[in-house]
Design goal:
Layout (H helix, E strand, L loop, with lengths): L1 H11 L15 E5 L24 H14 L4 E7 L8 H17 L3 E8 L6 H10 L2 E5 L14 H13 L4 E7 L7 H11 L4 E6 L14 H17 L6 E2 H11 L1 H6 E2 L13 E4 L5 E2 L22 H13 L22 H6 L8 H13 L1 H14 L6 E5 L5 E5 L4
Parallel strand pairs: 1-2, 1-9, 2-3, 3-4, 4-5, 5-6, 6-7, 8-12
Antiparallel strand pairs: 9-10, 11-12
The structure holds iron/sulfur cluster (SF4) (2 copies).
Amino acid sequence: MKTLAWLQQSLSRKQPQPADQRFAQINTLVVKVTNRCNLDCLYCYENIQKKGQDMSMEVFVALAERVFQATQAPEVLFLFHGGEPMLLPAAWYEQACAAARKIAKRLDKRAKFAMQSNLVSLTPAKIKMLQDLQIELGISFDGIAERFASMRNQEAKVMENYWRLREANVKTGILTTINHQNFAHFDTICRFLVEEAKVNHFKANVVSPVGRGYGLANLSAAQIFEAQRAILEFMIETQGKVLSEYNLSLALDRFFNPSKRLATTTLCHEKRCGAGSQVLGITTTGDLLPCGRFQWDDHLYQLGNLADDNQANSFQQKVDRFHDLVPQNWFDCPTCPAKAICAFGCQAFIVRSQAQANVECLPTKMLFQYLTENQERLRPIWENGQKTRSKPQAGFKIKDKLGNYRYYQIQET
Ligand code: SF4
Ligand code: SF4
């Protein structure tokens, strides 16, 4: 098989190979270490399998070699994703992290690790692994079992395991979706996060009908905005001192401090996001995807394979083609006042959905109007929020294609 043969050859080479230009600006790799999952969430954007394939160590090591040899970034975040990455044995991660750190050190760079997990399968060995390897854990959570119906299930188990991690001092972050079941419950969710889960920061991403959830209806603008307004009203009630949500905090930053937008480039909240340049998704067999929000068998959007020869030109054409799809979603942007805070939607979700519409456009306009009408109430929240955030987002400067330096912020997808 070509892939395996190439990987073995690549690993045994004594001489360094020319840098693979596909990785020249990469700072984040969403490593889909398995197609398998132990849940079956109704909105999942993956095509999960009960008996799927796991990534071999050869593929992972070849990936680490390629990215560290090529990237200008001083640090690369490996975000272990799936499927459910916790299904792989602790030994796999021990080997993978050790190999990536060794390669990074040899090339005077740094490797950082994170994992996005549903947290259903947590063993003492996995807790020790997370501690020893300093893997930051993002936990998927969007319901409170006894208070409203959920699209995930197993919430009680997740919270039980969450507390085991907290007691073991494993660094955790909470990723919530705004979905069809929970959009009207965000006041309850905020209170739960603060009062019971003792969380001060979380992220609430809007669910899109793709992958497993392809047949779902789009959330309406009113439903999305209802959830976001509830979060902001909770932040106002608590004076911005106890809870911040990442996407809304970024919108507040951009609303009250527009110059920051010009100085900083985020991965996802730009008209042209970092898909295919700052971030790539990698499947278990080394296929390259524009970012992690694709399913492992999304052949339409694949950018090639890790084992391909260095074909930077055709790779770049595929990346550009992806970003140029469905331009009608943004015809209104130049004259839109909400562009000051806009994140422009997720192109991966837009192109993969039936409607191919940016479902976040109208809620962004509603949010902008709300921020304008409530700026006096919100200004102190924004100011306090700046103080309570645990630390600034990590980032670094990279030279772009035009030779200009831009400050890039690392952000998990
Ligand atoms: S809110 Fe919609 S029209 Fe306005 S800038 Fe954003 S994507 Fe463009
Ligand atoms: S906005 Fe969407 S497509 Fe772009 S990098 Fe973020 S998750 Fe990927």
